Fold these 2 entries.
Entry 1:
Amino acid sequence: MAREPLRINGYLAFVIGILLTVWTCMLVVDAQDAQIRSSFVRDTDKVAADTSARLRTYFDTLLSLKALFSVNGDVDRDQFATFVRELRLAERYPGFRAVQFVRYVPAAALDAYTDQVRRQTAGRAGVPLFTVHPPTPGAGADRADHFIIEFNEPMAGNENAFGLDLASLPAQLAAVEQARDSGRLVATGRTVLIQDTSQHPGFVARAPVYRPRMPVDTVEQRRAAFIGVVAIVFRVDQLLNEVVDPQLLQHLALQVSDTGEADKASAAGVAPASLEGGRLLFDSRPQGARILAQRVLHNHVDVAQRRWQLRYSALAGSRYGRNIVPPLLVGLGGLVISALISALLLASHRGVILEQRLRAILDEKQASLVELEQQKKHVELAHGDLSSVLITLKQAQANLITSEKLASLGALVAGIAHELNTPIGNSLLTATALADMVADFEKQYASGGIRRSALEAHLADTRTACGIMASSLGRAADLITSFKQVSVDQTSDQRRRFDLAEVVRDTVATYAAQLRRANCRVEVDVASSPRLILDSYPGGIGQVLSNLINNALLHAFDSSATGGASSHISISAGDIDGSHVMMRFKDDGIGMSEKTLHQIFDPFFTTKLGQGGSGLGMNIVYNVVTGMLGGTISIESTPGQGTSVTIMMPMVAPNQTVAA
């Protein structure tokens, strides 16, 4: 009767195993989908951020051109070309088509202006004959304004735009007038560039230029001071192909559409349908590519008063598709395990049958088992003896470990007590002497025979005693503070943005007197730079530098080894990859042996125990750098060749958490 449940349990285990396998496969697929979704969102955010950052760079260039006109009043063609060439935009950011200056020309001055430009450009290599084109509708009395492209860099490939009158193009004219009246940088909507025969969509960003030292507070004042606009011309596909990683475009399709003015787009909202039709600026979808419908996202980028809508679509078979291998392996593994468990239970069923047969055989040999039982008892007694010996050995081992710990603790306490004994003893002796001097002075005062010289001598002795006590107690306080700082409180410092050069200079300045006494010259090679502005803990960095300087003065420049010769410390720092800083502290002192170098960060390890060294300085340095500052520290040293300490730390320190 007991055989049948075992067989049923075997089949039931197989079914349960299959169900668990299916559930695990579903979990794997869900985890894959979550990871793919996170990667897709991260990639789309990067595209939007990179596009926005690159456009800001170009727009900053426009503002620098505007500043050139604001400083010089009027800029000639050579100055404009030199300024653009020095920016090296074509080398650094080749996603633009041309940089232009559009001059405002009243209708009455058009002919004189045309003759003047022709005289200026006559004979220039690569510059075509200047002609205002196309004819402006309503020219003459009905059309008082002209906005003509006068400077065009580079000229090669953009000849058709030279002399173009934007007043003849309603969309371009509206953008120029909007920039003139608002005083802000303004971009056009989707446009086809006259100098581009491919008919790809493009746009133009323009910034107004006003005469220097004229008021521009109102629209009327801005129109009166207006002399033209500086502009950057883009073909959208060239811009985005430069900004967006080509490898990324192999996995997702990007569509960009102009949705109009940013304020109106924010108020009205943008529907996905706006990506189609005449406002489409860019579409990277490969022909015939299949889109993953569940992997479509939208976001937007504001471009000089206009808003671009970005639509991202994952391509099938790319990094955003599911990988069937992990679920397949999980399913195969679950199937194998379920089969093995089922087979094990069925084997147990057969084992029951074999057990019954063996029991009959064992009953026949009961006599031989008695002897085996006796042997078993002997083995158990031997095992008990061995267990007792093992327990005794473990107790001896624990006693040895405790003894070693107590010995180390005794050495530590003895060293700290020795360090504290001298300053505290000096303070006690000086205080006793001061008390005796005060008692003698009180007796003289009571007798009424105090002379001026006795008073001055008493004051001098009191001042000397106070100085001795303050110095000794300060030394004791420093030792106690260092002892308490073995475990650095990583949340005790105030975090802020600061210039690393200022912190280094301020820290070195506090040690000026000690360095002069030690005949030590300090060379600081840390320049004030925006690339060395840190968001971290200046107190921690100052503490690290202070401990390194103290360590060098106490150990590296030992007068007994250097003979009182002059010594040198150099501190340098620099940006590594835009997110980390490397700071190097070097001295030309006596250096360290390999054994000392191996123990340098151990708490309370010092080569001058009882001679002013507490053994805590480098341990605190290590804790601050690796904990509070989130960096790494390494030391290189050779006896007689000095020591070099290299600290690598992030520009943005990790957030510190306080334990509950």
Entry 2:
Amino acid sequence: MWWNDFKIRRPLITATRQTEETQLKLLKEILRENAQTEFGLAHNFASISNLDEYRKNVPVNNYDQLAPLINRQMDGEPTLTIAPPLYYARTSGTTGRYKDIPLTHHGLKQVKHAQKHLAISLWRDTKFMAGSILGFASPAEEGRLKNGLPFGSMSGSTYKSVSPILAKKFILPPSAFSIEDLAAKYQAYALAVLATQNLTGIVTANPSSILKLVHLIESDLQNLLKSLAGEHTSWLLPEALAILPEIRKRSQGMRITELNKKFNANKQLNPRDIWPKLSTIATWTGGSCGIAIDQLKRHLPSDVRFVEFGYGASEFMGSANVDALNNICLPLLNHHVYEFVKRADWEAEIHHFVGLHELEMSEDYYIFITNRSGLYRYNINDIVRAEKGLGDCPAITFIQKGRGVTNITGEKLSEYQLIEAVSRILVDHQIEAGGFMALADETNSCYRLYLEYDVPKIADLLAQALDNALRTLNSEYDDKRESGRLQQSKVIRFRKNACETIKDWSLENGIREAQYKPTILAYSKEWGEKLRTLIEQE
């Protein structure tokens, strides 16, 4: 860790003292390296000397626009980069065909550096590494393309970049990440957790993965304990059963004996029994992930710390956590060239681009990146917020996907506003709720919130509270309600585990579990009929 701090962390901190100069130097290096590619020749890379010229010569791109060049580069043509891709991060996305994102050796390096920055912060600021670690990941290699190069998930690639010394602290063998049956994989995770006395850290991009694990442990606790003791293993799915001997080999025998003794005496275990030394969870905390974290806190010891994983996607690792105590996540400004447009401007089709050093604190922006793997002025359709960073470089925090805005009659309701409103009503009414989804009902000019909760016959009360919260958070919503153009919001009670069913639908359609992001806000015409089967009849 001291070596990583010297070789990786210090150069980033130094760069934050000269953000503009660092970004310009990196841009020139990228353009010089790739001037003779098809894309570089078409956009005059060789003649560009500053960011303004770059913006004039190179348009904003998305994946569909770059896909033909990516596909031809797979055949060996230098269309985007002189350095050949070594790996493709495959993302199933939320709609449409999967995307294969090329990663050159520089692209793989930024994955490693982001992971090492997080590791340094966890090591320095928390007890995450004091004991054993549970990690969630998909396989780094899920197959080979026609050119022989591997493709897989970004979470798998991140895990693969972990040092061998640190990898020894993981409670599951690497083979567990290759378990194809998702239910069997979670059984393996649950068995490993119960078998480990000194689990101090959990790392996964998506907190809903941990929530799913917690629910499994609580619902199948007796079966899991018996299986660890060598009894009643027939209920386990084949892939979990196959890995059970390895888990038992790694386990502490006294731990299993003590848990069985406590369970037999009390018919239950409390969070401190299951997670006796858990210190820190590193995961996404922004956007809709906050809802899952609020639920998790009810099932874990009260002193467990949540550390921001860092802003990232299959396309690139956008930030790295350099301060786990304050969750400061700095852009990887020595790996990517960043551009931004204020959210309000972009949505009004005003394309005024600014650099990292020009961001205004607490302002929301659409983000565009250029990197050494062939993404040029790439629009990932994400909204981030500028916050206090280090030197003259701000930190950036993911807020929501750009498409996460609905508009019935000019109110432009965002996911962020919806999440805040739902959080308020849950706190105010002391309700323990599961997931939720809100639909913009254009036919009836209202919003319908589908919410998992336990208290019956309070839908009307919650609907009034939701409507009040949205009117406070969104002045246009308030105006449209006042004028009658919008009707009062409605709350519809989801049956138990409805959101888990929605997640299963997505996984069945090819979205990876580690990449799944719940739909928070959509239109009734897209989801209305699907949700009818998930409503709790009161």
